[in-house]
Write a structure and sequence with these properties.
This protein has 99 residues and is mainly alpha-helical. It has three helices and no strands. The N and C termini lie far apart (62 Å).
Length: 99
């Protein structure tokens, strides 16, 4: 699971859109923190009330997990789409200005 969430973080860091990068990093970081805190809690090193994403049922935690994964999937879906500007009519074929 840690590999999957690190992969999400890597995909988020490669975004061309700055807003998508920040939102993806935030969602990935939250997932990583949840998994790390869950493992520390199960090892007895820390006593917190966390759930493991996609494995444990926690009511509100499950809903939040699915919302965050929806945001991540939306960011990944639109990562290669760039706005295309319409061609200008005043330039010729080679980029020279017409007289």
């Amino acid at each position: 699971m840690i590999y999957v969430f690190c992969r999400f973080l890597r995909i988020s860091l490669r975004q061309k859109n700055q807003l998508g990068m920040i939102m993806g990093m935030a969602c990935s970081t939250i997932f990583l923190l949840q998994v790390i805190l869950y493992f520390l809690n199960n090892l007895g090193l820390m006593f917190t009330d966390t759930n493991c994403p996609f494995l444990s049922y926690a009511g509100t935690g499950t809903v939040i997990t699915y919302i965050l994964i929806g945001i991540l999937l939306s960011i990944c879906r639109y990562q290669n789409i760039l706005p295309v500007s319409p061609p200008s009519k005043e330039f010729g074929i080679r980029g020279k200005v017409r007289a």
